[in-house]
Amino acid sequence: MNEQIEQDWLDRKLQEAAPYIEDDGFTARVLQQLPAPRQAGQFLRPFILVGMSALASALTYVLSDGGRFILVEMFRLTTIPTLWVVAFALASGMLVMAGGIFAAMSKSNHIQSEV
Amino acid sequence: MELTDAGLVARVLVDDDQHAFGALVRRHQSSVRGLLRQLTRGDLALADDLAQDAFVRAYKNIRSFRGEAKFSTWLYRIAYNCFREDARRRKELVGINEEQWQAEQDPQTVDPGLRHDLMHALSLLPLHERSAVLLCCQKGLSHDEAGRALDIPLGTVKTNVLRGREKLKKTLAVWAQ
Predict the structure, then answer these.
(1) Could you give the ipTM of this predicted complex?
(2) What is the DSSP annotation of A90-114?
(3) Which B residues, 62 through 121, put their C-beta within 8 Å of a C-beta on chain A?
(4) What confidence category does residue B115 fall into, taking pLDDT thresholds of 50, 70 and 90?
(5) Is A7 inside a domain boundary?
(6) Is residue A33 one of the residues assigned to a domain?
(7) Does B38 lie at the interface with A, CB-CB under 8 angstroms?
(8) Sorting pLDDT into bands at 50, 70 and 90, what band is B153?
(9) Do A19 and B106 touch (CB under 8 A)?
(10) How many Å apart are CA B76 and CA B31, to the nearest integer?
């Protein structure tokens, strides 16, 4: 019981020894150091990118005679040996996986060093 | 009506609202600066520099605040990390600025003699005990919250608080009578 009273006394004194610290321009100094806020029109960026991509695709389709070259390339693809296709798919998969792992590791390191 | 911490954080996340972040800084600046002042053993200029650094880091990394702990606990963690990194750089070359320290304390609340002995006793505690005692006994964090802030296991927090308290009680035994 005595132990608890002593503990409460100590905690109370510790709390009393930490009075409120006036701001005195501290918040203003912090706000000055913050990076500039995001641009208001930034939300338009994805719409612009998608729009430009759609426009480029439509132009390509029209200028390439209805995408005839795609049919030609598809036909050429069917003549490639199966082993080459398997090797190409495997190499692409490994490349994408390595990229993903590298991105995850660098992101994790960045968060750990910042926080 | 005053917004909660969670509401202000949401505004920062969604609109990048720096006014909302300013409100968070105003709300927590006293406790964060107070904690750092005690961790740096009364070096007010260094404590304020570290507090500024902590708040700027908090703003830049606010997306990593997942709301599992209180915002203040998350801030204490960042502030403690800032302090630790700086101490590592300075190799703990922080001294006690007793005069400035005394001038900053509120003379109405605690007997000046007791305050002096308390602060001196605190400054003598090893860093791991001092930080655990400050967060749990002064800032009112639970052992679990302090563990998150200091990034140490729950059992270690309990041990550090217990040992720190024992040392403080021993040093301040005369005042407790």
Answers:
(1) 0.73
(2) HHHHHHHHHHHHHHHHHHHHHHHHH
(3) 64, 77-78, 81, 104-106, 109-110, 114-115, 118-119
(4) confident
(5) no
(6) no
(7) yes
(8) very high
(9) yes
(10) 9
